[in-house]
Every structure is written in structure tokens, then in C-alpha cells.
Write a structure and sequence with these properties.
Length: about 280
């Protein structure tokens, strides 16, 4: 993963949903468990993580930082200020690369809370990282070296797709499309399952059909030489069944709804940034 024979030591601060999705995916793709440590305040959670993933866990965030080349900050945005202030001294002493996955917190604010002059990468991942099918947007501040960019890109490529953005504001767009995006597709799957039940299928059968169709459509869209619009046209026979369904979606303004939902998501990220960086 880097030029030295030793893998980079990665400390995850806050071993919740997103951190476990990333380190779980890294482990599945062969990253050595000995090089990963995760912190949690709950003993039960620490035991569960060590048992399930075979990585080291700690209660003490400072001890984790003191041994790390890369520190991944993975607590809720609202907890980040206190966490950064508590890590400041250790971080300034060791100067690891900082990677934040928090929605809506800009690199300069994090850097400031951590004492300044640090290499900071803002990452917006998503939970399908857990199954190696994640999508992450990355933004690096000016202090991040090429080697550090490459290391983080490699780590996240091991759990899915990586897209660099050149402007930090573009991270809000990544949040609206892929960070929060899995929830939109899950919502559509839930609706499709409920509709199947309404039309007379059993819940189990409706769920299996809805999930396999979502999977099949995504796989086909990724693998095909045709774009999604052309693939949709190929399902839609003139005067056939699909046409009626698509007409219904269009009349209800699906594209507009998606536009408004993603705008609202990006705006919430900006709002979080204003609230939390005060
Ligand atoms: N869940 C998602 O789909 C995504 C989440 N994110 C970001 O990831 C971050 C974490 O979100 P989730 O994993 O969903 O939340 P979570 O609540 O599952 O995980 C956060 C964890 O941090 C722990 N924690 C809080 N303060 C701590 C401290 N001082 N020291 C050690 N541990 C501490 C909590 O106990 C919890 O286990 C957030 O900033 C969020 O914006 C980013 C992309 C996607
Ligand atoms: O809902 C949230 O705030 C986080 C960030 C992106 C996905 N989950």
C-alpha cells in the first residue's frame, strides 16, 4: 500500500457505521488487521469489533493517534469539535495525515480545531463500502503530499470507486449524490417491495424480486456500453407495460423530485458547516 515494507498504520476514531464499513472493506480486500486500530467509548462495542473484524480496539483516542500514520475521524459532525480539541496536542506532536468523513465540515475548520498546518483530506464515502461497492469523493488541502493522496486513494479504492474533486464545495454535491445516495435507492426498493405486496405477491417474494432487479439494473448499467437512458428505452416497448409506469413517474415529476431532494441534501451539508464552524 506504500513504498515502505510496513503498511501505513490507520487509526479510526469513532467505530460506528461508516468507520466499520471502511475498515471492514479494507480487511476483506487484504489490508493487514495489525495495521488498523479503532476506538470506541463502549466496552461492548470494542469487544464486538475485535471479535468480528480481528482488529485492535482502544478506548483511548490519544493512544490511537500516537501510533498512527493516518487518523480517520469518523464521529458525528456535532461531536467533531470536542474530539479535535481533545486530540490537538497528540496530533501536533505526531502530525499524521488527517482524513475526515464528516458531512459538512470543511478542511480549514478541522485543521484549525486540530492546531493548524496539517495535511487534511475530506472524504465523503458511503456505506456500500462494507461490501466492496462503495463510492467516495475526496478533497485534499494544499498540505497533502502526492504520496498521501495516493495512499488514501488506494485505501478507499479497496472498498469501491474513488473520485477526486478539485474544489472543496464539490464535496457537498458528492454528499447529495453518493454519500446519502444509498438511502434513496433503499427507499425505492422499500417502495417497490410494498407495491409488489399491494399487487398480490408475498413480502418475501416481492423483496427478492425488487432487490434482484435493483442489483441487475445497476450491474447492467455499469457493464453496458449504453447509457442508462438507452437501457431504459430498451425495456420500454412502444405501447407496452413499462411505458405506462414511466409515464406515471414522469407525470409525478420524478426528475424534479430527485433534483429537489439532492439540493436539500447539499443545503443541509452547507447548513451543518455554518452551524458547526461558528
Ligand atoms: N452513515 C453514512 O452513510 C455516512 C456517514 N458519514 C459521516 O460519518 C460520520 C460517522 O457517521 P456514522 O458512522 O453514521 O455514525 P455512528 O453514530 O454510527 O458512528 C459514530 C461513532 O463515534 C463514536 N464516538 C463519538 N464520539 C467519540 C469519541 N469522542 N471518541 C470515540 N468514539 C466516539 C460513537 O459512539 C459512534 O460509535 C459522520 O460524521 C457522518 O457525517 C459520511 C458518509 C456516509
Ligand atoms: O446523513 C448523514 O448526515 C450522513 C452523511 C452522508 C450519509 N449519511
Amino acid at each position: 500500500m506504500n513504498d515502505s515494507p510496513q503498511p501505513s498504520r490507520i487509526a479510526f476514531i469513532g467505530a460506528g457505521n461508516m468507520a466499520s464499513a471502511i475498515f471492514g472493506g479494507m480487511l476483506d480486500s487484504g489490508y493487514p488487521a495489525e495495521a488498523i486500530v479503532a476506538t470506541s467509548r463502549s466496552q461492548e462495542k470494542r469487544d464486538d469489533i475485535s471479535q468480528r473484524y480481528g482488529i485492535r480496539t482502544m478506548q483511548d483516542n490519544l493512544a490511537a493517534v500516537q501510533q498512527a500514520d493516518v487518523v480517520v475521524l469518523a464521529v458525528k459532525p456535532q461531536m467533531m469539535r470536542d474530539l479535535c480539541l481533545s486530540l490537538r496536542e497528540s496530533v501536533q506532536a505526531r502530525r499524521p495525515l488527517i482524513v475526515s468523513v464528516a458531512a459538512g465540515l470543511d478542511a480549514a475548520t478541522l485543521d484549525n480545531w486540530l492546531g493548524g498546518d496539517l495535511a487534511v483530506i475530506r472524504c465523503m464515502p458511503n456505506t456500500p463500502s462494507l461490501v466492496g461497492a462503495g463510492a467516495s469523493g475526496l478533497y485534499a488541502n494544499a498540505r497533502v503530499s502526492d504520496a498521501q493522496r495516493q495512499l488514501v486513494a488506494e485505501l478507499l479504492t479497496s472498498v469501491g470507486l474513488v473520485e477526486w474533486v478539485e474544489q472543496e464545495a464539490q464535496i457537498e454535491a458528492v454528499t447529495a449524490i453518493s454519500g446519502s445516495g444509498p438511502a434513496y435507492f433503499f427507499l425505492f426498493m422499500e417502495s417497490l417491495e410494498a407495491a409488489g405486496v399491494e399487487l398480490g405477491l408475498s413480502t418475501e417474494s416481492a423483496r427478492r424480486l425488487a432487490l434482484q432487479t435493483a442489483f441487475g439494473a445497476a450491474k447492467m448499467a455499469r457493464e453496458s456500453v449504453f447509457d442508462p437512458a438507452e437501457l431504459r428505452r430498451r425495456v420500454t416497448s412502444p405501447n407496452g407495460t413499462t411505458e405506462r409506469a414511466i409515464q406515471t413517474f414522469e407525470e409525478a415529476g420524478l426528475a424534479d423530485i430527485v433534483g429537489r431532494a439532492t439540493q436539500a441534501c447539499a443545503e443541509r451539508a452547507r447548513e451543518l458547516s455554518r452551524e458547526l464552524s461558528k
